[in-house]
From TrEMBL:
<dbReference type="Pfam" id="PF08666">
    <property type="entry name" value="SAF"/>
</dbReference>
<dbReference type="InterPro" id="IPR013974">
    <property type="entry name" value="SAF"/>
</dbReference>
<dbReference type="InterPro" id="IPR051690">
    <property type="entry name" value="PseI-like"/>
</dbReference>
<dbReference type="InterPro" id="IPR036732">
    <property type="entry name" value="AFP_Neu5c_C_sf"/>
</dbReference>
<dbReference type="GO" id="GO:0016051">
    <property type="term" value="P:carbohydrate biosynthetic process"/>
</dbReference>
<dbReference type="InterPro" id="IPR057736">
    <property type="entry name" value="SAF_PseI/NeuA/NeuB"/>
</dbReference>
<dbReference type="InterPro" id="IPR020007">
    <property type="entry name" value="NeuB/NeuA"/>
</dbReference>
<dbReference type="Pfam" id="PF03102">
    <property type="entry name" value="NeuB"/>
</dbReference>
<feature type="domain" description="AFP-like">
    <location>
        <begin position="294"/>
        <end position="351"/>
    </location>
</feature>
<dbReference type="GO" id="GO:0047444">
    <property type="term" value="F:N-acylneuraminate-9-phosphate synthase activity"/>
</dbReference>
<dbReference type="InterPro" id="IPR013132">
    <property type="entry name" value="PseI/NeuA/B-like_N"/>
</dbReference>
<dbReference type="InterPro" id="IPR013785">
    <property type="entry name" value="Aldolase_TIM"/>
</dbReference>
<protein>
    <submittedName>
        <fullName>N-acetylneuraminate synthase</fullName>
    </submittedName>
</protein>
<dbReference type="InterPro" id="IPR006190">
    <property type="entry name" value="SAF_AFP_Neu5Ac"/>
</dbReference>
Amino acid sequence: MQKINIANHFISKRSPVFIIAEAGVNHNGSLDMALQLVNAAADAGADAVKFQTFKAEEVVTAAGKIADYQKKNLGIAQSQLDMLKKLELPEKYYQAIIARCKKRNIIFLSTPHGGFASVDFLQRLDVAAFKLGSGDLTNLPLLAYAARFKKPMILGTGMATLSEVKKAVRCIKKTGNNQLVILHATTSYPCSERDVNLRAMQSLMKTADVLVGYSDHTLGVHVPIMAVTLGACVIEKHLTLNTTLPGPDHSASLQADEFKNMVQAIRQVPIILGSTVKEPTKSEKITLKQARKSLVSVTAIQAGETFTSENLGIKRPGTGLAPNYYFKVLGKKAKRTVQPGVLISTKDYGR
């Protein structure tokens, strides 16, 4: 069975779901907001909190335009470069953020959004795993570069075809690094429910030969919970301090109380799914005798009288002869007198 270890948190098909609070760029360039996001993620019960590591010039040229969803969420048209400059997390902030993560017992992660330089920076910080965003799924040189550090890899697959996903998986495995989880995702913020396509996640499970999770961009919490019921071993979801804050991702994120509710619901999923064995539960075994029925005398039945459909009935409780004895008893002679409302036993009838 495939299993990977991120900072002593095991990820597998049978392990508790690994939940990542995607702080992303929702810190708006503020250290105080970044620290508050760490606290909110820890309070919600997430396993990890993830940021994005980049310098704007390492990500995009001056000609790059923002996506339509970013234009809508920001309310203004601007270049990607201008937008990203405001969302950089200065390197001097990282030690404080990592220290807060350690204090709150939550794993620090960050996406090396700025390419090779960001991978090197995060490697120097000894990050527990590399999480690569969907935009870099076809950036095979970057995937191979990060994979060679032999750390666990988490890779978003938004915007990708199955063929592109397989190429990315092969690229990473070719380095000898088999510690990989891929995340089904739809790169739209917020994502319409008609574009979620959770069955595509199941296709990845059947064909990609790696662990599969889900990165959610829908509004609300029901879709990631559904993903867990379908077998997602990792859930990633955006977290914000307030959905009304300015920025490209806040409006498609969960606030702290909503994120906590999602985590609690996800933790209940394996309990609810329970066992594949169909048998009475412990609580049902107590109820069973009260809820099931037995053979019972409807009228007084004299010794030697024949059991008939008029004097023999089926009623609760289920502590006597089971109903499947009904046709076996019909036509038999009563061996002794039975009063009305009495549960029939094998001692009450003869051959």
